[in-house]
Design a protein that fits this description.
Elements (H helix, E strand, L loop, with lengths): L11 H6 L15 E7 L3 H13 L5 E4 L15 E2 L6 H34 L10 E5 L9 H9 L6 E4 H8 L6 E5 L3 E2 L2 H14 L3 E3 L4 E5 L5 E4 L3 E9 L9 H4 L3 E10 L3 H7 L6 E3 L6 E5 L5 E5 L5 E2 L2 E3 L14 H11 L8 E11 L6 E5 L2 E8 L5 H17 L23 H22 L5 H7 L15
Parallel strand pairs: 1-2, 1-11, 2-8, 4-13, 11-20
Antiparallel strand pairs: 3-7, 4-6, 5-6, 9-10, 10-11, 12-15, 12-18, 13-14, 14-15, 16-17, 19-20
Helix pairs in contact: 2-6, 2-10, 3-10, 11-12
The structure holds flavin-adenine dinucleotide.
The site of flavin-adenine dinucleotide has 42 residues, from helix 2, strand 12, strand 18 and helix 10.
Length: about 475
């Protein structure tokens, strides 16, 4: 029987998006069959289901979700809808120049497609075409974007324009950003209203969703079977869209580092934002390795966020008491506050009304991976969205739909379809190694802000950081 959707201990986006008394989709009980079973009901799983239904409406698609759809990263992100042009170098390494340009345009059109989807399906996700400024808050970070602009310009691609400190101040009210580039296509959404709206659309299209139904075993038989706590689904094809929880699948583990990101919001401060000149203006990111982002919400709260939190261990298990559900407030409010002091000093004393955190599945390049498990041709994976899933999961859904339906097209043939990279060593080396790299990144970011050059070891370890806003130093995979 369906239970009332639990909203306590969830972040503010989901609390605002779920009406009191709303019901979960039923738990999986018994042993039904499906044509395609998707494991994980975040944006990646939902988009895969929708895309399959759009192309082949008679296909019987079932989603099994451990929590509720959107309970993972998709209902707790910062709602920044960003194109992937800043990762063009990595896209080009996997897809070639023409393939990278095609995918770049698809990612770039995501914001418009999200807006259209909201209109078509009556989703009020507070979509705002705010534009994005990628900037620098210290002299050492000025020009962090130069190499990517040069790569793009050589291919006659010009998605960004350079923007001066004065113009940034005019648009956003802060003088802390010394220079930057601007992408006018970027948008913001309300992540909770968005993912719940996408879930509603999937249900309307006939997708069966089982919530509170964690997969406990993936049986690699022919056809494959997904076992849950109280039932199982036998399906011709299985698609795994489990974000950080992909660590539970041995074949997928070595390609991602799981690390938390954190966000906070103030109370509504319309007058202060108005006075500052940052009422409904561009979303912003700096050029630290631990990227900081800022945006405002539809009800005029200030919403800062940072990367570089708790590191996942083993098949998930987070340290510091985080468990694997990421409930409650962020444990790094002081670090978020430091970023506000640096980027928006005028808002440094405004208290946080709430904060939260969630898992990110970082690949080395910062780009997601898709394909069939090396151990089973009918079990597919799509993960590694690396903290940029809002605009990329709709394209990920197209890629996974093509793979699951056996369609030969530009999506199934694209260079993001590739085997999981053997990037990271097994535990406990990866956990302690990741801590050493994270500590080095922190020191490098601090040294950059202080105008100092960190030592060789810190520079070398920080150079192992996976891709963030832009491609990491290592472009292949
Ligand atoms: C704090 C934060 C801020 C972010 N900000 C942004 C942003 O501004 N812009 C942006 O583009 N991206 C952002 N991201 C990243 C973005 O949210 C993700 O890339 C995106 O949501 C990934 O979607 P997903 O479906 O792969 O993952 P998820 O939404 O995490 O979905 C995976 C689902 O799988 C389920 N699952 C796991 N294991 C099992 C199992 N065994 N059985 C059944 N179900 C299972 C989980 O419960 C979960 O619901 C942010 C992320 C965080 C945490």
């Amino acid at each position: 029987m369906a239970q009332t959707t639990r909203i306590n201990a969830r972040g503010p986006w989901l609390r605002e998006a779920i009406s009191p008394g709303e019901l979960d989709q039923p738990e999986l009980v018994g042993d039904p069959k499906a044509d395609i079973c998707i494991v994980g009901g975040g944006l990646a799983g939902l988009w895969t289901a929708i895309e399959i239904k759009r192309r082949a409406p008679a296909t019987d698609v079932a989603i099994v979700e451990a929590d509720i759809c959107g309970g993972g990263a998709s209902g707790r992100n910062s709602g920044m809808v960003l194109s992937q042009w800043a990762k063009f170098a990595a896209l080009e390494a996997f897809c070639g120049t023409d393939g990278a340009a095609r995918l770049g345009h698809h990612f770039g059109e995501s914001a418009s497609n999200i807006e259209k989807f909201c209109i078509e399906h009556g989703i009020d996700a507070e979509f705002r075409r705010d534009g994005w400024i990628w900037g620098a808050t210290c002299p050492r970070h000025v020009g962090s974007w130069s190499s990517i602009l040069a790569v793009l310009a050589r291919r006659d691609l010009h998605p960004f324009r350079e923007i001066s400190r004065d113009e940034i101040t005019r648009q956003t009210g802060t003088t802390s950003f010394l220079a930057g580039i601007h992408d006018p296509t970027a948008a913001t959404i309300h992540p909770g209203k968005w993912v719940r709206g996408v879930r509603r659309a999937a249900l309307k299209m006939g997708v069966r969703i089982y919530e509170n139904s964690p997969m406990t075993k993936l049986v690699r038989s022919s056809p494959p079977v997904v076992r849950t706590t109280k039932g199982s689904i036998t399906a011709q094809r299985v698609v795994l869209t489990m974000n950080a929880w992909s660590l539970a699948i041995p074949e997928l583990r070595s390609a991602i580092l799981v690390i938390a990101s954190e966000d906070a919001v103030t109370q509504p401060i319309p007058d202060l934002l108005e006075k500052l000149g940052y009422k409904e203006k561009p979303l912003m990111g700096d050029s630290q390795l631990f990227v900081t982002g800022f945006r405002t919400t539809g009800d005029h709260r200030f919403n800062p966020g940072i990367t570089g939190g708790v590191i996942g261990y083993g098949s998930l298990g987070f340290g510091n008491g985080a468990g694997d559900r990421f409930e409650g407030r962020s444990m790094r409010e002081t670090a978020i506050r430091d970023c506000v002091v640096r980027g928006y000093p005028a808002l440094a004393d405004v208290p946080f009304a709430d904060s939260w955190y969630g898992p990110i599945d970082r690949t080395r390049s910062g780009l997601p991976l898709f394909g069939a498990l090396p151990t089973h041709p009918d079990i597919f994976y799509g993960y590694g969205f690396s903290g940029n899933g809002v605009a990329t999961t709709p394209i990920g859904g197209r890629i996974l739909a093509s793979l699951a339906l056996g369609s030969r097209d530009e999506f199934s043939a694209c260079g993001l379809v590739r085997p999981p990279e053997r990037w990271l060593p097994p535990e406990p080396i990866r956990y302690w190694g990741a801590h050493m790299v994270r500590a080095a990144i922190k020191r490098k970011d601090a040294a950059d802000h202080a105008g100092k050059t960190p030592g060789f070891i810190v520079r070398s370890l920080a150079g192992l950081a996976p891709g963030g806003i832009t491609t990491s130093r290592v472009t292949k995979n």
